[in-house]
Amino acid sequence: MGNVRPNAIKQPDDIAAYVIQCHDGNAVAAVETLLDEIHHLQNQLSIAVAAMGRGYTRGCGQRGKSPSGQAGSSAANQPYPS
Known about the structure:
Blueprint: H1 12-22, H2 27-51, H3 55-58
């Protein structure tokens, strides 16, 4: 079948040349744009981290414990229906 994505991996010098070419050969403008992109992505990551609940990173809590910290036997605490 052949390579479906022949240009999927570019060498860093090709990417750098492409970015500079997109800015009409102005390397300073290219670097400024890349720095702006980095700043934007850092902001987006900060928003995603703030919006994400602690359950994604620390677990949703201990199984078999109620929110008050005492062991419970409610259906919500059971991993599978009996």
